[in-house]
């Protein structure tokens, strides 16, 4: 799997206002910004992303995924503080 393929999978299952995926084919990192994260705890946000990947997480197609999951307001605040 490529970063573009993984990014497409996440985007197909979760409406994102910003999405960047990087990795080496097994170990991935992602910055995911979605309004669907509003009012959700970190674990709930991660579970939502895992749900978009479905069996790919169980079959080791995506071995590891490190995520930064933000709401649009959190993303805007983080972007202006840099």
UniProtKB/TrEMBL annotation:
Record Gene3D superfamilies: BolA-like (3.30.300.90)
InterPro entries found in the cross-reference section: BolA (IPR002634), BolA-like_sf (IPR036065), BolA/IbaG_stress_morph_reg (IPR050961)
Name listed for the protein in its UniProt record: BolA family protein
Family from the record: Belongs to the BolA/IbaG family.
Pfam families linked: BolA
